[in-house]
Amino acid sequence: MNKLGFLAVSTLTLLAAACSNQGPTDAASTPAAASTSPAPAASNKTIGLALSTQNNPFFVALKNGAQKEAAADGYTLTVVDAQDDPAKQISSVEDLIQKKVSVILLNPTDSSALAGAVKEANDAHIPVITLDRSVDGAQVVAHIASDNVVGGSEAAKFLIKALNNKGNVIELQGVPGTSAARDRGQGFDDEIKTSGLKIIAQQPANFDRAQGLSVTENLLQAHPDVQAIFAQNDEMALGAVRALDGAKRANVLVVGFDGTPDGIQAVKDGKIAAIVAQQPDMIGQLGVKNAKSVIDGEKVEAKIAVPLKLVTKDNAQ
Amino acid sequence: MHGIQKAFGPVKVLEGVDFELRPGEVHALMGENGAGKSTLMKVLTGVHKADAGDIKVDGQTVSIHSTTDAEKHGIAIIHQELNLIPHLSVTENLFLGRELSTLGVLHRRAMRKRAREWLAQVGMQSIDPDMPVARLSVGQQQMVEIAKALGQNARVLIMDEPTAALSERETDTLFALIRELRQKGTGIVYVSHRMEEIFVLCDRISVLRDGHFVGTRPIPGLSLDEVVQMMVGRSLEARFPTRDVTPGKVLLKVEHLGDKQVHDISFELRAGEVLGVAGLMGAGRTELARLLFGLDKASEGRVLLDDEPIHTRTPVQAIKAGLGFVTEDRKAQGLVLDLSLRENISLPRVPAHAGVIDRATEKRQTKGLIEQLKIRTRDMELPARALSGGNQQKVVLAKWLALKPRVLILDEPTRGVDVGGKAEIYQIINQLVASGVAILMISSELPEVLAMSDRILVMHEGRASALLDAATATQETVMLAATGGH
Amino acid sequence: MTSRFSFGNGAALLQRLGSVIGLLLLIIALSVLSPDFLNAGNLLTVLRQVSINALIAFGMTFVILAGGIDLSVGAILAFTGAITAGVMAAGHGMALAIGVGLGLGLLLGVINGVLVSWGRVAPFIATLGTMTLLRGLTLSYTQGQPIGVSNSSFALLGDGYIAHLIPNPVVWMFLVFVICAFLLRGTVFGRHVFALGGNEEAARLSGVRINAMKLGVYGLSGLLSAFAGIVLTSRLYSAQATAGSGYELDAIAAVVLGGTSLAGGRGWLFGTLVGALLIGFLNNGLNLLGVSSFYQQVVKGAVILIAVLLDRRK
Fold first, then answer.
1. For residues B15 and B36, what is the distance between their CA atoms, to the nearest angstrom?
2. Do A188 and A211 lie in a common domain?
């Protein structure tokens, strides 16, 4: 068997497979786009979305919101994913620039590392809108996000009230260095400091459910006298719930952040006391909406705050 | 086998070879390396498929497409390179691929019992079947291979250089075994370069030369010269070339050298002298060489070169002191098989300025050595893997000659090398000696030790049991000392 | 007999060129499939994208050729990047920061070398250990926060251009490639790398300083990882605490795709460059075609498997 022939055939087959696979995924999420005539790649109706990761339901919800909005008006949305690696995200933004999309919606992996990529886009006359996280030292036409600092203090206020301003709290932190982890932590910590509650342990569980579970297990061993757990996202909160179940500590209050479907379900089931819910689909939707405005030459606001809401058993849907 | 043809690409390796084996005969298959012996045997055992010709077993034409087919027809081969897995036990190796089991559950006890029986057949009843193969000597491993083939009830047994790694005693055991098998009607194909063995053991001989079938003759009535002539197409004047060199002053002096395996070894080695080292497997010959070359650390004694003590704690220091070491196992220790001839030959000292290789000098030097040693190759850029055994051995020699060593240690320098190649290696040894190099030659072939050495150091169980003058020594006196008798 | 080997040689050459031809076929396929693919801008973009991986993979090639493996490259990249940024954040100059970063990378690589040579630890385990250790040190040094870099001349290292056209990282990549290729083919060091990976025992018996060689190859790998870390830090204007995770696998993939044997002793540096480009073009092309990132991973995994399977057919 000829190695070269083999390699050539397999490469082409794989490419073909990958291309045909792209069809159904897009069709599933953008049925309208599939029925209208497909736009050429470099048309002015193409929007690029650079996600930090799809390994988290939050960003998947954001993507779905964006795709729904894009499909409604027959826009093509090209999604690239950085798997939480800033260097990879720079590459994928560059790829979007090469593809000549009209607007780039950037959901940065990190606030400090993407300035160069945004500048490249601007040099290529492609406006950038940041979603969820901002990019330091870069020029963007708009930034759309929930106010994480406010959200953090909302969570603290809920616990202060629920525990009658008395008790010990464990805080599960997100990926160190991300703005979400910083801002949520800051809002929460500042509010707790002025109250009768006490944070007896803080440890990163990297926004991850499995790590949320193991970190909580360890912390419960070390600090049995705890009344509440604040997790900086729902995934870690769900991990903490599992750890509490295992330790038969159903009386500990858990507060999450984000409002993912799993998280909301846990609120309904009484496992999680409250969630500071973001509305990721709304972030995605507003992202595309504003991108359309930019394409149409309309002015958009530089800072768009997406409302947060506190979800408890009473208002969970 | 009749009219067997086989070509690899454009090159015909076998051209119309006929080979016939009767039950109860030991049939020698001879030919220089590259003559096509291995290929013929690979066709017989289903590793290669013949392009033309047919194979008959008991008069029936059979097709052998795989080693499994060969096994089915009772054909087994014992390879020159051992095919055992070092960390598995003797039993596990014997039953590898044909484990006794029910629904995947091993019958350990039954296998161990049968392993004992098979080992007894080859005179190895003292071996614990649970011992890892790695702890056996090379000779013992060979016997395990033979036991494995016998366990398959082979009717045709192919042995490729079976005695290359065996001691005299083990060889005797093997020969007795072969005769016993012959009695039972097993046909044995015996591939070897050792003429003595062929004449002692075999009934008929078939010779291949450059892929052509030269002929089959009965051994009785055949002379050694006739066989050599059949193989090389010309007569070799003498198997061991004579040399006329008087050893000079003492170059290397070893005093009470020892470690865990070797004890209290003392000898002197003169410039222009060959000191043969004889002994049985495991007598500590290779271990002595490793000590001298700094591969193992000596715990006692000292080594002097030109009456100055030298410290050879690493090969780097030994090489610097002027020592060279041609190892016993050229594939595992002598060559980097994927590197080219040129790169192998220059490895101990790459011609370079400030670390940058001087390729012109390297090529010139390599070319000179290839010519000097008559290494048969078209291209010095070929990987060492591509050469025949004799040529590979010459490459290992060339590697050390490039360094112009003062003392050269040769461990089994002609193992697995064909007759013509051996003679050439002896010539090289003689040239080196003539130029004043001192040679320490370890060999298991007694005729070689006797013919090539000036003196012979005989080792037994890690100690020097005798230091004989080669002119007066005989196979008997050497063997006596090697077995610990006096 | 001899002409038989010449036949084998030709086939070997053809096999060697397999990755190169695979790359060309990929480029042709992508040019046909995507109108945005084949232009100078995009090609330079891809070159810049692969530069970090290529720099690491060049060092990895030496380690793998010598019969080892280095899992700590990504962690060394993150740690040295953080230290380099930290030195500048403390108010020191760029030259000192780079010097400290490179020196540290070399030192960490040499420590790997000491572990596998004198320590006799299996390379996989030794570098897995240093990888984990360095990841922890990086997180504790940075406290999980990115360390920003404001030095504008430092930023040019990874973000600038030569002649307003060629990105600087691409220049570094080719420069390091030329130096390493010479090191591998033109020097005694390189020759001994092949000998060590091909047959360690034979190399030792030939007087090759085995332990020193191991220090050398792991040291080189550490040095190049540190250099990649500095370029990446410059490109990101900041050192990321979790930078370079998974880069060791990308580097190994590039080396293997390029036709270097994981068993050591056989391979070439140009192949590694080609392997890195193959991965880069695949990433870029699949993004341009709008293939979902989930399927991108499937495709990349499959390509690596096919390449390795073909390698096994030798």
1. 9
2. yes
